[in-house]
Amino acid sequence: MRFPIIQEQVKFWHAQDLGKLELLRATYITHTFSPHTHNGYAIGVIEAGAETFYYRGDVHIASAGSIVVINPGEMHTGQAVDEAGWSYRMLYPEVALVQKAALEVFGRQHDIPDFPKPVIWDKELAQIIRKLHITLENSVSRLERESLFVSALAQLIAHHADGRPKVRSEAEAHHAVMRAKEYLETHYRENISLDQLATTVNLSPFHFTRVFREVVGLPPHTYLTQIRIERAKTLLSQDLSIAQVAGETGFVDQSHLTRRFKRIVGVTPGQYALNSKNIQDK
Description:
By secondary structure, this protein is of the alpha+beta class. The protein has 2 domains: 152 residues, Regulatory protein AraC (Jelly Rolls, Sandwich), CATH 2.60.120; 111 residues, Orthogonal Bundle (Arc Repressor Mutant, subunit A), CATH 1.10.10. It is 46% helix and 20% strand. Strands 1, 2, 3, 4, 5, 6, 7, 8 and 9 form a 9-stranded antiparallel β-sheet that branches. Strand 4 and strand 5 form a beta hairpin.
């Protein structure tokens, strides 16, 4: 007989000594992540249960003992396979940290390392990543923390990253999308229309929407929400109220921000703000 996990539990924190590394330890049962992306990598280990997620055109299942790796800017979802839910430990390193590790592994300047498989079965490495995560949660030894972090990244890259440069999108489309992303990042507070955005990059709304989704993996409005959430995280760490942050980032109100924030980050704005305050008080 399968017994369901009792309740959802979430802990989110930062490892400031490792380049503002974000970490998450969670048990989710009914929570469903909306389609979203990360500016950096998402790397973790499933400790119990199983998670299913859509990524790069396919549905994947990561069960206990497996490693999950999501590349930067890649759209993905996330939810439990069944009523038992899943428990996992996740790290969210910035691209620069992974590139630095790749330089050590490949011995040359490397494009952003690409991990072709989002679910990896490597028992030894899974144990290493789990030990790293536990250490970053409990140990104050900088040498221990940094040594394990560098070692884990290096082994992950050496054994599972594609050593070849990632294939680029068609140049013209890529350039148009980059311009659109820059526009969204500048005008994220505004109620931007599709016509307005498409005109900015000299494409028809239909063509622009198709190209943007092909390159980014998300429709423009979802990517705009991503930008607003990232800005909200910054403002929450500056001790602004959730209502103030909602107003500053283009959300309709506090409840709108809270719903979107939890669906993407996995914790509420209040939980995120409390963690940021605890870091500043140390």
